[in-house]
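User: What would this chain look like folded?
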Amino acid sequence: MDLSQLASHSSDSTWEKPHFHALHTIRPFSTADTGSRNDSDLTERAKALDRISLEFQTLVGKNAPLSEVESFTRQWEVASSNGPIVQPNILAWFSDTNALRLACANNNPDVVRFLLQKGLSITPTVINFAALKLKETHDTTIMQALLESGWDINEPLGETRPPLISSILDAPDLVSWCLSKGANPGLSSPSGLSIIEVAASIASLSTVKTLVELAGRAPDGAPVARASYAHALGSSSDRVEVVRYLSDQGYSVDAFYKTYQTSNDHSCEDMMIGSQNALHFAIWAGKEDMVRLLLERGADKTLPTKSIMKTGGETLSPLDLARKFGNTAIIELLSQET
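Assistant: Here's the prediction, encoded as structure tokens.
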């Protein structure tokens, strides 16, 4: 390909807008217009860019040595005042591939640094894959490289996913590393799910305490409901003590669980959970210890619940819910005069 025939800026009339992601990504449940998945509408230049980009992604994806990645990339460099750079239109297509994501998934910090140096964009998908590898290896080298290239540790990982620290809350060493790099535990996802709520589900009591103390803002959200749900599922220990601590800090014991899914998601979780709070979760799970604590902390015994999962779509009081699940001890607790 003759590099001189490629535009140098997106404002140029001959700039070929990247279509690599749309051409090579299947999104069966998406209603968004992600572009055609065939190249019949592409110019010959765009088709060439697509072929080069696919070769580039394949090379990185198979975890080729850095020297091979460097050699391939060098073919597409042009001179600049700051030395050789990847031709801008080619770089835009390279950034539209999964190359940087795959380098993170391969846990190859040398290739990651090289791709960052060449100017590939750091997308949320890149961070998600780097976060998965971080949790697996506890090696912060790649995350450090991303930070040094301008990534903000407090950027959310998606519309319904808070920043990075929310992904590693069950790993105290990684929590400490994130905090040392400026992670703010008081943040939320764009849809509203807070780091504190995620922590209430999976983090140790000591981690929850650290995050709540550092968050430095008025209690909100429904972390008590999330802790009770985790306790109901048996997916995390010490949730009774987490609820005790959170209620001591002023978090509502009556707040209802929210999935924070966007309206376009038609979330199964939304439909199955419906309207439930900490007390409702504890009742159907038969968690007498949690029910007792919540009542001691002033939980409202009159707030109704309705869900496909536990009430079959009926609206039930907490006492009716307890009767439905036949836990005599919990029925007795709920029947007692306050």
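Strands lie at 77-78, 85-86, 156-158, 161-163, 305-306, 315-316. If you want, I can go into more detail on any region.
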